[in-house]
Design goal:
360 residues, alpha/beta, Quinone Oxidoreductase, Chain A, domain 1, Rossmann fold, 2 domains, six-stranded parallel beta sheet, 10 helices, 19 strands, 25% helix, binds zinc ion
Length: 360
């Protein structure tokens, strides 16, 4: 038995399709047949050389699969419930040890022994850790969750990156019930954030985004107002004050990841407001904020990277309960067979839909 997989060597060459022997899971390990994976922006950054990625590696960390084999003792979900062979599951894209300096200080996303699916080099110890393959081996201690039945594969695939990251950002932002929340960027994460902020009771969700088509789509995902990010920072701040009793937003959630979109963030906040940054995940020029304004207006800045296992659980419950409220399925596609992974990556890079899917 073997698994087809797409191997990344360097940004100058296409992925190489190769077969790997299927591993026999050791105790605690779980072998999953991938039903669907989706191409994340960070896969595109790696493939096209905008950020460093260890190589050779199997890229892809957004995926959903079904359990085909387990080590002695079987597989269990994050809450300790036994999982069956054939059960549809997703899992935390970051593996953390649970007992290092950072894990013990509530910083599991920054574990000293962190392992990230789709970011690990192929080694004699193992290869099948990425989503661009037919199978994935989950190491012992992976936080696994069953996928609710009403979430289709293509919607479930990005849950363990996009949806869970948004859940981590909203957890970090604190309760938003009754608040004015500004979302910077209306890509996959920004749209999900609009829907989740609305679900969490935000009184007003305002999205800021340069692309008209994306602004329109955000209105289908719970945004009440969509503003053009190409307006001047003064115009943006005025538009938000107008909708917040002249105070400014309670929270600004940043998913755009480009300095021009990040920089106006603090000016949109009310005094004491929270600025949560999550979009800037590849190198770019430094951004400029006024330190004096941060001090005088007592602003809070927090960065969020990766997420904790509980955030994936929140993400799955959110999708289960809101799947019919917003057109989540429209965000995924087209789907390519795994054998056409290079065409899929080129398409995703050129056309920039929220997510392109791969079906092994
Ligand atoms: Zn991702
Ligand atoms: Zn740790």
């Amino acid at each position: 038995m073997t698994s087809l997989a797409a191997v990344f060597h360097n940004p100058a060459q296409p992925l190489e399709l190769r077969r790997f022997p299927l591993p026999v899971p050791a105790e605690g390990e779980t072998l999953v047949r991938i039903r669907c994976s989706t191409i994340c922006g960070s896969d595109l950054h790696s493939r096209f050389g905008r950020r460093h990625c260890p190589a050779p590696a199997i890229l892809g960390h957004e995926m959903v699969g079904e359990i085909v084999a387990t080590g002695n003792g079987g597989a269990h979900d994050y809450r300790g419930r036994p999982l069956r062979i054939g059960e549809r599951v997703t899992w935390s894209m970051v593996w953390s040890c649970g007992d290092c300096y950072f894990c013990l200080r509530n910083l599991r996303p920054k574990c000293e022994r962190l392992m990230k699916f789709g970011h690990e080099p192929i080694s004699p110890a193992g290869a099948l850790h990425g989503g661009m393959a037919e199978y994935c081996l989950l190491p012992a201690g992976t936080a696994i969750f069953p996928v609710p039945h009403n979430i289709p594969d293509m919607v479930a695939a990005p849950a363990n990156c996009a949806t869970a990251t948004v859940a981590a950002v909203l957890r970090t932002a604190g309760p938003v019930k009754g608040e004015v929340v500004v979302i910077l960027g209306a890509g996959m994460l920004g749209l999900t954030a609009c829907a989740m902020a609305a679900a969490n009771g935000a009184a007003r969700v305002i999205v800021v985004e340069p692309v008209e088509e994306r602004r329109q789509r955000a209105l289908l995902f719970g945004a009440h107002v969509a503003l053009n990010s190409e307006s001047t920072p003064g115009e943006l701040a005025a538009a938000i004050r107008e909708r917040s009793q002249n105070r400014g937003a309670d929270a600004v959630l940043e998913f755009a990841g480009v300095p021009d979109s990040v920089e106006p963030g603090p000016d949109l906040l009310r005094t004491g407001g929270r600025f949560i940054l999550a979009g800037s995940v590849f190198p770019s020029r430094p951004v400029r904020f006024s330190a004096e304004q941060m001090v005088r207006r007592m602003l809070h800045f927090t960065g969020v990277h990766n997420y904790a296992p509980e955030d994936l659980e929140t993400a799955l419950v959110f999708l289960r309960d809101h799947i019919d409220l917003h057109p989540f399925a429209d965000l995924i596609g087209p789907a390519f067979p795994l054998a056409q992974v290079n065409e899929a990556l080129e398409y995703a890079e050129k056309t920039k839909p929220p997510r392109v899917a791969l079906l092994p």
